[in-house]
Design goal:
The protein has 329 residues and is α/β, with parallel strands linked by helices. About 2% of the residues have low confidence. It folds into 2 domains: 156 residues, Quinone Oxidoreductase, Chain A, domain 1 (Alpha-Beta Complex), CATH 3.90.180; 142 residues, 3-Layer(aba) Sandwich (Rossmann fold). The radius of gyration is 20 Å and the shape is globular. Strands 3, 5, 6, 7, 8, 17 and 18 form a 7-stranded mixed beta sheet that branches. A 6-stranded parallel beta sheet has the order 11-10-9-14-15-16. A 3-stranded antiparallel beta sheet has the order 2-1-4, with no helix packed on it. β9, α4 and β10 form a beta-alpha-beta unit. Helix content is 25%, strand content 29%. The protein has 10 helices and 18 strands. The two termini are 14 Å apart. Bound molecules: NADP nicotinamide-adenine-dinucleotide phosphate.
Length: 329
């Protein structure tokens, strides 16, 4: 039985996390090619904080929702949906810009083509850690970096939402992973399969200009890596120096974009900027990796809906041990 109204996280103005409210709103109806999903979990991503704060003023007018991915159960289907049924366990990354309602709500409408079966054995709230972060990690490693067996891969920001998926996926692709993370998260990175972990608080000492920071003796030699996945954005220039000839580098971080653009004009490898795409075939591949044990969702903490502001504040610290997930069902 689908109720007439539901609770949904929204903000009526831009600002700090306290602008987020839990509103009572009508449950949306799916269009002909859409499904209504009873949301079990949805993740909070750094981009959600950008959209909420007003630093990125794109998408629907206010008030508007928050959250771009989910895992849950199909509650209703549109007339022209024939490959999903009520009760199916699905997950999805909607992509695009914020809308009037996001996925951090008791129910959410998704295009049917964006939904694929959730991993069979996974708890749905935990699984919600993966659609955005896992797709990003997969598309960085497989598409931008073409990581394959025997590659030596450096993953910067390895303990976060994207990083914790990337370490596992790089290992599944046959790479040897060196992780860069904070000291509290070295154990997590090793558990996920990293062969070595470097502490980002010790690698670079701040200097009068951070352009040429003093190097710690743990910083690997130039040529030590075949690929660098930058999931943080600091010291991109320095990490690029560690690549072997013919090495590949990609970043997901907005702050690395100026250097990535400049890299096309500099000697040495170009830094590719990755923007995650909502490809359902990739989501299906992630589900298979979870089902066969190569990938597990790493959840930093689950928050109830009424603690959405606390979850945004945690994301804004820039430190993470996996993903913050809002638990809804
Ligand atoms: N382009 C896209 O389509 C796309 C998609 C998803 C995400 N992103 C971006 O990708 C980045 C990662 O996202 P996320 O969800 O994984 O973020 P997250 O969960 O907040 O993770 C942040 C990570 O950065 C690490 N970190 C903090 N300070 C660092 C430093 N000085 N050097 C190296 N690492 C440091 C943290 O490690 P400790 O906690 O151990 O310190 C943590 O592992 C963000 O910039 C996000 O906006 C982009």
């Amino acid at each position: 039985m689908i109720p007439a109204t539901m609770r949904a996280a929204r903000h009526h103005r831009y600002g700090d996390p306290d602008v987020l409210r839990v509103d009572a709103v009508d449950v949306p109806r799916p269009g002909p090619r859409e499904v209504l999903i009873r949301v079990h979990g949805a993740s909070v991503n750094p981009s959600d904080a950008l959209f909420r704060s007003g630093r990125l003023r794109v998408g629907a007018r206010l008030p508007r929702g928050t959250g771009l991915d989910l895992a849950g159960e199909v509650a209703a289907i549109g007339d022209r949906v024939d490959d999903l049924a009520v009760g199916d366990r699905v997950w999805a990354y909607r992509g695009g810009l914020p809308k009037r309602l996001g996925t951090i709500a008791e129910y959410a409408v998704m295009p049917a083509g964006r939904c694929t079966p959730a991993p069979a054995g996974a708890d749905l709230a935990d699984a919600a850690a993966l659609p955005t972060a896992g797709l990003t990690a997969l598309q960085v490693l497989r598409d931008a970096l073409r990581v394959g067996p025997g590659d030596r891969v450096l993953i910067v920001g390895a303990s976060g939402g994207v990083g914790s998926a990337a370490v596992q996926l790089a290992v599944a692709l046959g790479a040897t992973v060196t992780a860069v993370a904070g000291p509290a998260n070295a154990d997590l990175c090793r558990d996920l399969g990293a062969a070595d972990v470097l502490d980002h608080t010790a690698l670079f000492r701040p200097g009068p200009t951070s352009d040429l920071p003093a190097r710690d003796d743990r910083l690997p030699a130039e040529g030590a890596f075949d690929a660098v996945a930058d999931l943080h954005g600091a010291h991109v220039r320095d990490y690029r120096r560690l690549l072997d000839r013919g090495g590949r580098m990609a970043t997901t971080a907005t702050r690395a974009v100026p250097f990535a653009l400049a890299s096309t004009l500099l000697p040495g490898p170009r830094v590719r900027v990755v923007q995650v795409k909502p490809r359902s075939a990739d989501l299906a591949m992630l589900a298979r990796h979870v089902d066969d044990g190569a990938l597990r969702p790493v959840v930093d903490r689950r928050y109830p809906l009424d603690q959405i502001a606390a979850a945004h504040r945690a994301v804004e610290t820039g430190h993470a041990r996996g993903k913050r997930v809002i638990e809804l069902a």
